[in-house]
Design a protein that fits this description.
elongated
């Protein structure tokens, strides 16, 4: 079907070019007609495929006097293989032979997960928040993480920091890191 549509579209394109060159509206209308026909064939093909995929997996066998009717249990058995063909994208825990008690590498994976988690939020007094709003000192943020930090924060490690003003960081919804305590450090430096 798609090859027929491709031929029709190419023919319509050729007729459209001919219509433009010869300035004849007849060729343009024939081109439009071929395009509509190609569209109708695509819709018919889509409907046919949709009906085919929605059809039951078990073909119905007409009951005849010579042969017995198929049992419902036999029909259910035929449907089951279609369900088994589905692919599991993520295997369940233990499917690959990795049990938590047997694998020592799980402990290092847990520490990596803890190291990747965001540090806590520094508690900032209201008086300091007013001072911070007026400051334009530079702090750094890391993409996809909600905290802002001083450049010397140990949590940053090898992450790629993005410099930003502390007032702008607060306006954008970033919160201060509890490890490097940027709010307390910046307010103490400006008092």
């Amino acid at each position: 079907m798609l090859y027929i549509v491709l031929v029709l579209v190419l023919a319509a394109l050729g007729l459209l070019v001919t219509a433009l060159i010869t300035a004849s509206s007849l060729w343009a209308w024939v081109s439009i007609g071929l395009s509509v026909l190609a569209g109708l064939i695509l819709v018919a093909d889509w409907l046919r495929r949709r009906r085919r995929s929605a059809a039951p997996a078990v073909p119905e066998v007409p009951a005849t006097e010579a042969g017995p009717a198929p049992e419902p249990a036999a029909a259910a058995e035929r449907v089951e293989p279609a369900e088994e063909e589905q692919t599991t994208l993520i295997p369940a825990s233990g499917d690959l032979g990795d049990t938590p008690a047997e694998t020592p590498a799980d402990a290092s994976a847990e520490t990596e997960t803890k190291a990747d988690s965001d540090p806590g939020v520094e508690e900032t007094p209201e008086a300091d928040v007013a001072v911070l709003a007026e400051l334009e000192d530079e702090v750094v943020v890391v993409d996809e993480h909600p905290r802002y930090h001083l450049r010397t924060c140990v949590w940053l490690g090898t992450r790629d920091p993005i410099p930003i003003g502390v007032g702008e960081a607060r306006q954008l919804g970033f919160t201060p890191c509890a490890r490097c305590r940027p709010d307390a450090t910046l307010v103490a430096a400006h008092r």
